[in-house]
Design brief:
The complex is a heterodimer of chains A (188) and B (572).
Chain A: H1 2-31, E1 42-45, E2 48-52, H2 89-105, E3 129-130, H3 132-136, H4 139-146, H5 150-160, E4 174-175, H6 176-186
Antiparallel strand pairs in A: 1-2, 3-4
Helix pairs in contact in A: 4-5, 5-6
Chain B: H1 2-31, H2 41-51, H3 61-84, H4 101-112, H5 122-125, H6 128-158, H7 168-194, E1 204-207, E2 213-216, H8 222-230, H9 251-275, H10 279-305, H11 309-312, H12 331-344, H13 359-371, H14 380-400, E3 405-406, E4 409-410, H15 413-443, H16 461-476, H17 491-521, H18 537-571
Antiparallel strand pairs in B: 1-2, 3-4
Helix pairs in contact in B: 1-9, 1-12, 2-7, 3-4, 3-6, 3-17, 4-17, 6-7, 6-8, 6-17, 7-8, 8-9, 9-10, 10-12, 10-13, 10-18, 12-13, 13-16, 13-18, 14-15, 14-17, 14-18, 15-16, 15-17, 16-17, 16-18
Classes of the chains: A mainly alpha (188), B mainly alpha (572).
């Protein structure tokens, strides 16, 4: 028994060096060559960092495309989902409220135009994406508020949208921050 | 829609393409045959030397279990204290606090037992030091513990009669050097180049496009996320696990993480057959497991794609399916696949919030964890399945009126008693635990704990009951996923699930190893016309029936009170 205890302690010490020092340092070294040098890829506008490519942020102003509802208000140092169950009456009321509010800001919409992702909270609370349909319903509002041609905005959405992985696998997405930065750059 | 189903199909196919050769490789590694990774031998010799281990020393099954338990207890003690005092240790750029004793107790057990149930949140509850030196360390070694235990079990059936079952330390070290570490390295680099952070810098701050100040948690996550999946651990670097965009940046990484968590469990099944020179038995086991997986997967994906009927009534379009708690870049289809895989395999990482999935999806998730052997966790999946096999052997023996045998060894009262005890343990822990927590919610709602029982549940009614049932089931299965709405960071949940975690891990390892050790030491009986062959279709069906009947009898009442009742109220 005593032999096993000593062996266990020594083996633990050796493995701590191998697995917790050497391994992550090798990964950190390799990651230094990735986009963002291992600290996460940043998005800049006019040379200023305005966010991370993968981290969704809150958009509430009418001249921007809006992201999904977030249970944590896009707090990027405290991710979280709503964890509301599908039959929870308070939750269902909340969803109904989101639909009404979307209809208020987009009076040209029918209920059936609204895709589910625009009225439900994401898993992380930091979802950077919306569905292609979710972007499409906002085009008219954004164009009006920016005094742009509707077609021009729709084209930009199309240009920034990402298709399925390799064109074959998974859903298409629109990265809201990427789209809004492109929109801001369009003006000039 | 079709691209989403293609994605599932391609992901599973790639899993098999990697897992089957990996199984062949593992059988050779543990049999000591020549493999291409033998260039790592000097490193292993170095590890043995520094640890004072002689890898040629033979152990019997009891010595194996002693070694296993000893090193696991060393980790428990080490981790408990480091977690409590992490605030006073270096590598804490975000200035996070130390853990309370009950939280440290729960967290350390949870990671030692390969469960990774997390009652803390990755961004605020741990430091970079503890994330790497406790959590990630244990993700490696707990997976290696499971694999080494499975190899001991393989060893018992390799030769006709044997009590010398190899050396525990050798199996354990090789699981790391020949399997977990190289694969993790490759995967971590893939993740790093897909956007997962690797640097040790702390939180960042920026001004968002519309002018809000935002703090972003980061940290060296890529190395962690790799072993978290390969070792079927599942604990997240960030609070929302693999739903977090830095932990799982794209559809591509999502598939990588999905493949990573399934390859070793499948490879272990394949390795079993090759190792004991009965390949057909492996394929039969693999077949039963795969059919079981499909029976859970198909209704799960269909219920998620169908969307929430209550939201459908509001008139919005759920073309893509149910989106609450899900990420747009994955979509409901592969999130459904993930939820099946992560519950049958004891990973317990999530890419969508299970609390918000449809009631029937919750039903299948719970059932997957209760059965816990359709592929199952790293190494332990095979051990769990073995218990069902022994019960099936016993029942078949009774049906034909012969002394039951398994692989040429008589199965007698002692072995059956152990198998029966292990079978009863899970329902006992899950149901008694859930009953106790329900009792407290009803009768002691105002108990003065960190989270009062009246605020435990995030959802009313049947779904609230499901939250408690899920927590206990996940703990017993060493799964680690949760209906995360549950307010679980308080003394009741930390302590009760701590015990469930511990018992649910070690007894189902020791039980099967004991049975295998006892059987392996018995005289070998050559096959005759009257032998019950374990590798036939009939016997496989028998095993499948045993799995379904045992679990249905144990859990159906509880499942009815939770997800099924919610389902029927939702569709009315």
């Amino acid at each position: 028994m005593k032999k096993y205890i000593l062996q266990s302690i020594r083996l633990t010490a050796v493995l701590l060096v191998l697995l917790c020092v050497i391994y992550p340092l090798v990964v950190a070294f390799a990651g230094g060559f990735a986009k963002g040098n291992g600290g996460g890829e940043k998005i800049t506008k006019n040379g200023k960092v305005v966010g991370y490519a993968l981290i969704g942020q809150s958009f509430t102003k009418p001249q921007y495309f809006w992201g999904r509802p977030s249970a944590v208000g896009y707090k990027a140092d405290g991710s979280g989902g709503s964890n509301k169950g599908p039959s929870n009456p308070d939750y269902l009321k909340e969803v109904n409220g989101r639909i009404d509010s979307l209809l208020k800001y987009h009076p040209y919409l029918k209920r059936s135009d609204i895709p589910a992702d625009m009225v439900t909270a994401s898993g992380s609370g930091l979802d950077p994406d919306i569905s292609v349909e979710g972007a499409a319903i906002q085009v008219k509002r954004v164009a009006m508020n920016r005094k742009l041609n509707e077609q021009e905005v729709a084209d930009l959405v199309k240009k920034t949208a990402h298709g399925p992985f390799l064109g074959l696998f998974g859903p298409g997405t629109v990265n809201v921050l990427e789209l809004n930065v492109a929109l801001d750059n369009l003006k000039k | 829609m079709n691209t989403e189903l293609f994605g599932i199909f391609a992901t599973y196919l790639l899993t098999l393409v990697i897992a089957i050769p990996l199984g062949k490789y593992l059988a050779k590694v543990f049999a000591g045959e020549k493999v291409w990774t033998d260039f790592l031998k000097p490193i292993e010799s170095g590890i043995y030397k520094l640890s004072g281990i002689n890898p040629n020393e033979q152990m019997n099954w009891k010595q194996h279990m002693k070694a296993l338990m000893t090193i696991n207890l060393v980790w428990l003690v080490y981790g408990f204290f480091v977690l409590m005092y992490q605030d006073k240790l270096p590598l804490n750029p975000d200035g996070n606090p130390g853990m309370s004793p009950d939280l440290a107790f729960n967290s350390i057990i949870s990671f030692v037992v390969n469960c990774n149930l997390q009652h803390y949140s990755g961004e605020s509850g741990v430091t970079y030091l503890t994330q790497h030196f406790i959590m990630m360390f244990l993700q490696f070694v707990s997976a290696a513990t499971g694999i080494a235990a499975a190899v001991v079990f393989f060893k018992a059936f390799r030769d006709k009669t044997s009590t010398n079952l190899g050396n525990f330390w050798e199996f354990f070290v090789k699981s790391i050097t020949r399997l977990l570490l190289p694969l993790s390295l490759v995967m971590a680099i893939i993740l790093a180049f897909s956007g997962t952070p690797t640097s040790y810098e702390g939180k960042d701050k920026f001004i968002s496009l519309q002018g809000d100040t935002v703090n972003v948690s980061r940290g060296p996550a890529a190395a962690f996320v790799a072993i978290k999946h390969l070792g079927t651990n599942g604990g997240g670097w960030f609070g929302t696990n693999s739903a977090h965009p830095l932990e799982n940046p794209s559809y591509f990484t999502n598939s990588v993480e999905l493949i990573a968590q399934v390859i070793i469990p499948i490879a272990m099944v394949i390795a079993f057959g090759i190792f004991i020179r009965r390949r057909k038995l492996s394929w039969m086991i693999f077949g039963v497991m795969t059919i079981g997986m499909l029976l859970l997967l198909i209704p799960t994906v269909s219920s998620e794609l169908g969307g929430n009927p209550a939201i459908a009534k509001m008139g919005v379009s759920q073309l893509s399916g149910a989106m609450e708690g899900k990420e747009v870049r994955f979509g409901p289809a592969i999130s459904g696949y993930w939820s099946t895989v992560t519950t049958i395999i004891s990973t317990g990482s999530v890419n969508s919030m299970h609390d918000s999935t449809m009631p029937l999806t919750g039903f299948w998730q719970l059932l997957g964890m209760m059965i816990n052997s359709f592929y199952g966790g790293c190494g332990v999946g095979v051990l769990n399945y073995f218990i069902y096999l022994i019960i099936a052997v016993f029942i078949s023996g009774l049906m034909v009126g012969r002394t039951p045998e398994f692989l040429g060894h008589k199965v007698e009262a002692r072995e059956i008693k152990i198998a029966a005890l292990i079978t009863l343990l899970s329902p006992f822990l899950i149901l008694a635990g859930t009953a106790l927590s329900s009792f407290i919610v009803v009768n002691h709602a105002d108990a003065a704990w960190a989270v009062q029982p009246k605020s435990w549940l995030n959802n009313p009614g049947f779904h609230g009951f499901s939250e408690m049932l899920y927590e206990m089931t996940s703990s017993n299965a060493n799964n680690g996923s949760g209906f995360e709405g549950l307010g679980d960071n308080n003394v009741f949940w930390n302590v009760s699930t701590g015990f469930v975690l511990f018992l649910g891990r070690f007894l189902p390892i020791i039980g099967p190893i004991a049975i295998a050790g006892l059987l392996g030491a018995k005289k070998y009986i050559p096959e005759s016309a009257g032998t019950l062959k374990a590798d036939t279709l009939t016997f496989s069906l028998m095993t499948f029936a045993v799995i379904i009947v045992l679990n249905a009898l144990s859990y159906f009442p509880a499942l009815t009170l939770g997800p099924l009742a919610e389902y029927f109220t939702l569709i009315k």
